[in-house]
């Protein structure tokens, strides 16, 4: 019977749930595990023991042992360790003549004899530090020729497991009848991969985990960007397609040997997983049922494993459907949006029920209150979303809208027109309402869409996606909008720069930065929301109080909320400023000071103006004049939204012209930087980049342009006989 409990509770369990795969559910019933560690995992490039990886391995084994699992370890590496030691020994005992003509070939059996004791000593030391007892068992293939050996082996191992002792197996290469440990592939088993499979059968294991120096079995060389990891191996599908490369750099086998051993184990009823031994938590993730590595299972032929190729297929399908969408008339596209709005309202009870289930799970998992608040679809939210979709539907159709029309020459007319980008990948956190807004904007702009929401809102996102795609007509295709449910599919999607045209991450600074670093696809988004409000010396302080309080307190977690308050030095210690700071404190805002504010007001000193504090924190600093405020913002800001409060028109104009941000305001709260408030109907995010869209991104930010040239048989021919007019023509 299964042990359960791996991964703990709370947020960690929720993370495991997102990455879990239906084909890995069998791990819940696993009790006895054989873990095989390859030589490339045990040793580093220099042939010495990789102590970091061995430590991580032992810690994972300890965790499983304490959780009640029965763990059997099969380790390679003795020959490699012995060779390293004997090379050194031979070197220091060499004469000068020997050094002139070095002979470094070493007997493999001698290497095994020397290395085995050293390897086991390391395991014993590491396990002892973790309060775990280990034992050594050396076997040869000839041992298994004796019918009584198997019975005695099982008795010994079961006794050790009952005592919570970790049996550590290795082939006894030192006395093997093989000519050389790395050369002879005859016998009942021929390397530690096949030994692990044999032991898994003999000891009635429930699972075999084989740790390698790669993440699993790939469709081609792992170094090839086009190669994809095979999460579930199907002999009929993959056996003929994969060409194996060279064997392991140090061990006897390589990936081909591991696959052969895993296939054999699976055929005997023992599921096997090949995973990376370089990751510090691969074993734990396998036991959580996460889709990592390559699974071998005797029922895999009956499973629908089409999900392994859904990343590309999903993207290609979205692109194909987007072309069908673009072929519809404006009224037909408008009707799709109106049908979506109606469907959302008709299914409000079901959507609310699924959202409440997400909220309960998030609270049980211990998520922060601010995240739970962002997840919540409050009363009236569905109605509000439906209203915004109808507003988007009523917008002027942007597709094929002509921006410019020029007569190049007689009967040769150039037109510059809007057109969709193609396929958008939107990665967002927490807020299920974002899915609805983004889907509406994508349909209005004629784009295909792939959506990856946060795991914490999985049920809400799933029902919203189902409702929306349910009304998309077959002439377009319901695959116009794809919902990505597994986190590990994001990495594959980010490689599809030949299919996906734009990535828009919505979420934390960490999320946006990670996405930008992981893809060649253009990324539209902002990595920070450090917004400033500058109170000039001529400001109306009553107005300043209203604006600052709203910018900070209206929704502190929003990216357009004020993070830094800049104040003209002449307002220091004035009644108006003191009153403003007191009101902020009443609202729970914690004020930190820059060098001047810290010295004069004795508030806690800020560590850095480019900070990441609580959403209820605010940095205060005094500046000499409007130019000093501009310089501060351009140096420390994130080019998101910044505001000046002043009655001086010259100062306002200077600020609006010189602050290099996506949105710059005069006498208005930074919270107005929002697609809906700007009349865009909705937004897919706020861009702080300088290429393509900037600021709140609505329908027009999801479009690009193309050139249309209408002629009557003209040719260039070295520009002979062409009379260029370059005359602007009316758009109508």
TrEMBL record:
Cellular-component GO terms for this entry: cytoplasm
Keyword list, A-Z: Amino-acid biosynthesis, ATP-binding, Kinase, Multifunctional enzyme, NADP, Nucleotide-binding, Oxidoreductase, Proline biosynthesis, Transferase
CDD domains to which the protein is assigned, alphabetical: ALDH_F18-19_ProA-GPR
Domain Aspartate/glutamate/uridylate kinase: 31-276
Pathway entry: Amino-acid biosynthesis; L-proline biosynthesis; L-glutamate 5-semialdehyde from L-glutamate: step 2/2; Amino-acid biosynthesis; L-proline biosynthesis; L-glutamate 5-semialdehyde from L-glutamate: step 1/2
Sequence ranges assigned to domain Aldehyde dehydrogenase in this UniProt record: 310-572
InterPro entries in UniProt: AceGlu_kinase-like_sf, Ald_DH/histidinol_DH, Ald_DH_C, Ald_DH_N, Aldehyde_DH_dom, Asp/Glu/Uridylate_kinase, G-glutamylP_reductase_CS, Glu/AcGlu_kinase
Entry's Gene Ontology molecular function annotations: ATP binding; glutamate 5-kinase activity; glutamate-5-semialdehyde dehydrogenase activity
EC number of this enzyme: 2.7.2.11, 1.2.1.41
The reaction(s) this protein catalyses: L-glutamate 5-semialdehyde + phosphate + NADP(+) = L-glutamyl 5-phosphate + NADPH + H(+); L-glutamate + ATP = L-glutamyl 5-phosphate + ADP
GO biological process: L-proline biosynthetic process
Lineage: superkingdom: Eukaryota
HAMAP family tied to this protein: ProA, ProB
Function (record text): P5CS plays a key role in proline biosynthesis, leading to osmoregulation in plants. Involved in abiotic stress tolerance.
Protein name: Delta-1-pyrroline-5-carboxylate synthase
């Amino acid at each position: 019977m299964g042990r359960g409990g791996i991964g703990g509770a709370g947020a960690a369990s929720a993370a495991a749930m997102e990455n879990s795969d239906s084909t890995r559910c069998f791990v819940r019933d696993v009790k006895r595990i054989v873990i095989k560690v390859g030589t490339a995992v045990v040793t580093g490039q220099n042939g010495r023991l990789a102590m970091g990886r061995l430590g991580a391995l032992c810690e994972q084994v300890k965790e499983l042992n304490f959780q009640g699992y029965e763990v059997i370890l099969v380790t390679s590496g003795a020959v490699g360790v012995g060779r390293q030691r004997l090379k050194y020994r031979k070197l220091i005992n060499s004469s000068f003549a020997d050094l002139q003509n070095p002979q470094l070939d070493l007997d493999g059996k001698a290497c095994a004899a020397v290395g085995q004791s050293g390897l086991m000593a390391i395991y014993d030391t590491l396990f002892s530090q973790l309060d775990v007892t280990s034992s050594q068992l050396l076997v040869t293939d000839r041992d298994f020729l004796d019918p009584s050996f198997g019975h005695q082996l099982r008795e010994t191992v079961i006794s050790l497991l009952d005592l919570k002792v970790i049996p550590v197996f290795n082939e006894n290469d030192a006395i093997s009848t093989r000519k050389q440990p790395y050369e002879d592939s005859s016998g009942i088993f021929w390397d530690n991969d096949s030994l692990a499979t044999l032991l898994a059968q003999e000891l009635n294991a429930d699972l075999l985990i084989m740790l390698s120096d790669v993440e699993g079995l790939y469709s081609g060389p792992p170094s090839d960007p086009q190669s994809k990891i095979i999460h579930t191996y199907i002999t009929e599908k993959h056996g003929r397609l994969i060409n194996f490369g060279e064997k392991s750099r140090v061990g006897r086998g390589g990936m081909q040997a591991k696959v052969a051993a895993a296939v054999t184990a699976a055929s005997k009823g023992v599921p096997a997983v090949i995973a990376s031994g370089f990751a510090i938590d691969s074993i734990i993730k396998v036991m959580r049922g996460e889709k990592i590595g390559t699974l071998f299972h005797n029922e895999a032929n009956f499973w629908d494993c089409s999900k392994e190729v859904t990343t590309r297929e999903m993207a290609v399908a979205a692109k194909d459907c987007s072309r069908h969408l673009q072929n519809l008339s404006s009224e037909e596209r408008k009707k799709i949006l109106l049908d979506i709005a109606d469907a959302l309202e008709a299914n409000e009870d079901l959507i609310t029920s699924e959202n409440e289930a997400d909220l309960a799970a998030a609270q049980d998992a211990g998520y922060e209150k601010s995240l739970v608040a962002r997840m919540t679809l409050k009363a009236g939210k569905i109605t509000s979303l439906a209203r915004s979709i109808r507003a988007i539907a009523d917008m002027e159709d942007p597709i094929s809208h002509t921006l410019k029309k020029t007569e190049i020459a007689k009967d040769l007319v150039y037109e510059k027109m809007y057109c969709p980008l193609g396929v958008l990948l939107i990665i967002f956190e927490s807020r299920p309402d974002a899915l609805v807004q983004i889907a509406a904007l994508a349909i209005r702009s004629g784009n295909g869409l792939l959506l990856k929401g946060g795991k914490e809102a999985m049920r809400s996102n799933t029902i919203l996606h189902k409702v929306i795609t349910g009304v998309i007509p077959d002439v377009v295709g319901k695959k116009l909008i794809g919902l990505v449910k597994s986190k590990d599919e994001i990495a594959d999607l980010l490689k599809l720069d030949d299919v996906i045209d734009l990535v828009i991450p919505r979420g934390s600074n960490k999320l946006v930065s990670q996405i930008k670093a992981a893809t060649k696809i253009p990324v539209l988004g902002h990595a920070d929301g450090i917004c400033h409000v500058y109170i000039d010396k001529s400001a109306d302080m009553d107005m300043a109080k209203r604006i600052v309080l709203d910018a900070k307190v209206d929704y502190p977690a929003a990216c357009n909320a004020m993070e830094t308050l800049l104040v003209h030095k002449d307002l220091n210690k004035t009644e108006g400023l003191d009153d403003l700071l007191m009101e902020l404190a009443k609202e729970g805002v914690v004020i930190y000071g820059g060098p001047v504010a810290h010295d004069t007001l004795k508030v806690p000193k800020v560590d850095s103006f480019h900070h990441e504090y609580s959403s209820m924190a605010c940095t205060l600093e005094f500046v000499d004049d409007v130019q000093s405020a501009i310089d501060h913002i351009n140096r420390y800001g994130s080019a998101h939204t910044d505001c000046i409060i002043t009655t001086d028109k010259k100062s306002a104009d200077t600020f609006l012209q010189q602050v290099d941000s996506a949105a710059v305001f005069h006498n208005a709260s930074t919270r107005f930087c929002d697609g809906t408030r700007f009349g865009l109907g909705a937004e897919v995010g706020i861009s702080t980049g300088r290429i393509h869209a900037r600021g709140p991104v609505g329908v027009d930010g999801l479009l690009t342009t193309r050139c249309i040239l209408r002629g009557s048989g003209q040719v260039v021919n070295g520009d002979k006989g062409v009379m260029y007019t370059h005359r602007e023509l009316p758009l109508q």
